[in-house]
Design goal:
alpha+beta; Palm domain of DNA polymerase; Alpha-Beta Plaits; eight-stranded antiparallel β-sheet; Nucleotidyltransferase, domain 5
Length: 751
């Protein structure tokens, strides 16, 4: 039997269920007699017989094994491999063992590696891999006929359906108690609407429609947080709870007992709802899937294949979790155990060493203002390439085995291992090399192939970015801050060396940040920049890309202090007219769609200018664009849906004290029965900015045709948005200046 691995998960105790997408478009359910192992290490005075007794009836068998316990170990240690009967009880068993004694008495490994991922690692398989499989007794024998390094792989015959529901809302928000008006299924073949009969008929119609369409993917919007739990509640209310099944197993859909979680990441709080997964069929909640939102299905496929994570898991996983899976795979191939709780600490540093070490990448402050003829050069995946080529990993930086290593960290002089490849570089290799190849392929590809290659390289881009952050993450299994510091030290050297080459050639550095340089030389042509690029590559040993020459580019100051430049707030137009925009409102996810559209309209007008002078001459056109949009706001012609702000709750609703516009929206949502959590996203429209009660803003889901937004406040905010891109060319185009211009054209002052 041949096909693609579509889904896999633990079945009955001792079973791993694998769904294969067959060559003829059908599917096959296969069962392998398999269960996962955990590993236990103990000190000389610890009796391993005690934890094995604790495992009790969960134990399938046990044996001694030689493994590397820690990533820094040079020799294998004897541990006990404990094969469990039920894959779903691994962490419960591990928790019982850990509580037997003080921390470290029994060292536990591989306890939190998901069983389906362990199965893929052990058999050297990956999702959507094309395989040949045979049943031999109660075991499956796999023959991989695919390559995770393949670039032109095809994923044929996959069927996708989007599920949506029209709800008869009794209040202003949809609730679990509201009845179903209609169920909609959208696919490439069109839309199926189920709106006849009572609620039970509609639910059974949904089940039949899904069974008849037999999709491989079901997509939804807020399926995890609301839609699927809502369907479960309506099925219960209709007495059809046992009949609601949308997967291929015929499993009754249930709401997970585990609640969603709020967590911090990169200084922000996020909320992750509990997953509503299907069996044998893939459910993707497009509103909570980072991989899908950033790179679509093709990017999700690439991420799942490379990181060896089942599709439903990778669609909901953070990029850091996906990267961890890739590292776990390489660890399993190297007989390295994955610690349940990381214990690797950083090397001691005195205050002088810490002063040199504790710095980030190098930054050249931007020269604020508008510039002409600036060229931009970017290092290609610099941080991942530094880790790969300099062998930077937790176990290789300051290793004890290579004190005389020639591979040393700049400025700090730390040695880097020359005897073995680190686990991080091993994992990064496929990310760096495949992304580079995809970027090459898309240059010559036609539309469909271009989109596919672009999506795949975008997924790999995010993996590459995360590799650096995970080196210093305190919960990373194979992270250590020393390796993180070493990458920053190399980055500083590379960027400084690049700037010196540029200055030798007579270029002025306008801005530099981590892996990008903006340089300028009078009358420099494209060939001059290409020569500069080649010399920098030769000097540093790292590849660069020449992004192009700007007709004009402006680097913006801080909104709080006009004398302080901001590193990543700039915009400009290349010689071919293409715009590059970073850090301004049009690039922010929380900006209302109408504001982003207005700002981009102004920028496209400026982009037609071939010089700074011509751009300044085009400012009046930009002002006319502002006035037009402001008048639409004043007349309430702009739809309220395009004026919604988006924000994540920084705390639980009950912890808010001041009646900000965000709190006003939260209060109304809670009043309508919504259950909100810290980190959860909300959207709202400002309705009475200068008010003092909960009417200051209205949640976007509660906006109606008769809802009037605060046009005065929106025009003020629009003026700020437009000033961001007009003021660099004309100092008079401040927010106040634009508002004054608008008021002068009206018979009644805005204020």
């Amino acid at each position: 039997m041949r096909g693609l691995i579509l889904d896999l998960y633990p079945g009955e105790p001792g079973e791993m269920v694998v769904w294969l997408k067959l060559e003829d478009g059908g599917t096959a359910r296969l069962v392998d007699h398999w269960s996962p192992s955990i590993f236990i290490g103990a000190g000389r005075n610890s009796d391993l017989g005690v934890p094995l007794k604790i495992v009790g009836q969960d134990l399938a068998w046990t044996r001694k094994a030689m493994k590397y316990e820690r990533v820094t170990d040079r020799e294998k240690s004897e541990v006990v491999e404990v094969r469990l009967k039920d894959a779903r009880r691994v962490q419960q068993v591990a928790g019982r063992i850990e509580r037997l004694g003080p921390f470290g008495a029994h060292r536990l490994y591989n306890a939190d590696v998901p069983p389906n991922q362990s199965y893929l690692y052990e058999h050297d398989l990956f999702p959507l891999a094309y395989c040949e499989v045979a049943q031999s007794g109660d075991r499956l024998e796999w023959e991989l006929r695919d390559d995770v390094w393949a670039y032109d792989y095809d994923i044929p015959n996959l069927r996708k359906v989007e599920v949506d529901v029209d709800i008869a809302k009794e209040g202003r928000l949809a609730r679990f108690t509201d009845r179903i008006e209609a169920v909609r299924l959208r696919s490439d073949g069109g839309e199926v609407v189920i709106d006849g009969g009572d609620e039970g008929d509609k639910l059974l119609g949904l089940v039949r429609a899904v069974r008849d369409a037999d999709p491989d993917f079901i997509t939804s919007r807020d399926g995890d947080s609301f839609l699927f739990p809502y369907l479960v509640r309506r099925a219960e209310a209709s007495g059809l709870a046992a009949g609601l099944s949308l997967d291929r197993e015929g499993t009754t859909m249930k709401v997970p007992s585990k609640k969603g979680t709020s967590y911090f990441s990169y200084g922000r709080i996020h909320y992750k709802p509990s997953a509503m997964k299907l069996y044998g069929r893939i459910h993707i909640d497009v509103n909570t899937s980072f991989a899908y939102s950033e790179a679509g299905l093709e990017g999700l496929f690439e991420l799942s294949r490379i990181c060896r994570m089942p599709l439903q898991t990778s669609s909901r996983a953070s990029i850091g979790k996906a990267l961890s899976s890739l590292q776990f795979y390489h660890a399993s191939k190297a007989d390295l155990l994955v610690p349940w709780k990381p214990t690797l600490v950083e090397h001691f540093k005195d205050r002088n060493e810490l002063l040199v070490a504790d710095r980030g990448g190098f930054i050249f402050e931007p020269k604020m203002g508008v510039h002409e003829g600036v060229g931009e050069l970017d290092f290609s995946s610099l941080y991942p390439n530094i880790m790969l080529r300099k062998n930077l990993s937790a176990e290789t930086v300051r290793c004890p085995c290579c004190p005389d290593s020639k591979n040393r960290v700049p400025e700090l002089g730390w040695n880097v291992c020359e005897r073995r490849k680190g686990i991080v570089p091993l994992a990064i290799k496929i990310i760096v090399e495949k992304r580079l190849r995809y970027k090459e392929l898309k240059k010559e590809a036609k539309s469909a192939d271009y989109d596919r290659y672009n999506a795949r390289q975008a997924a790999l881009k995010w993996l590459g970015v995360t590799t650096f952050g995970y080196l210093g993450f305190n919960n990373a299994k194979f992270g250590r801050i020393d390796a993180h510091i070493a990458v920053c030290a190399w980055d500083r050297k590379v960027l400084l060396d690049a700037s010196r080459v540029a200055e030798r050639r007579g270029f002025e550095v306008i801005h530099g940040i981590v892996d990008s340089l903006w340089v300028k030389r009078e009358r420099a042509e494209r060939d001059d920049y290409i020569e500069l690029k080649s010399e920098i590559e030769s000097e540093t040993g790292f590849a660069m890309s020449f992004e192009g020459i700007y007709k004009w580019v402006t680097f913006l100051p801080s909104k709080e202090d006009a004398d302080v430049p901001v590193l990543n707030r700039y915009f400009g137009a290349y010689q071919d007219g293409e715009l590059k925009v970073r850090g301004i409102e049009a690039r922010r996810h929380d900006t209302p769609a109408a504001f982003a559209r207005c700002q981009m309209e102004i920028l496209r007008t400026l982009a037609r200018a071939d010089s700074v002078g011509a751009a300044r001459a085009a400012v009046p056109e930009g002002m006319v664009i502002f006035l037009g949009h402001a008048e639409e706001l004043e007349r309430h012609e702009t739809p309220a849906s395009e004026l919604a702000f988006t924000t994540n709750l920084s705390k639980a609703p009950e912890e808010y004290r001041s009646m900000t516009v965000q709190h006003a929206a939260v209060k109304q949502l809670v009043g309508e029965g919504a259950q909100l959590h810290a980190g959860e996203g909300i959207r709202y429209v400002i309705t009475d900015y200068r008010g003092r009660d909960s009417k200051r803003a209205t949640p976007a889901d509660m906006v109606r045709d008769e809802t009037k937004y605060d046009s005065r406040r929106y025009i003020e905010l629009l003026a700020e948005t437009c000033a961001s891109v007009l003021q660099p060319f004309d100092p008079r185009c401040t927010p106040a200046g634009l508002l004054s211009l608008y008021e002068s054209r009206k018979s009644v002052p805005l204020g």
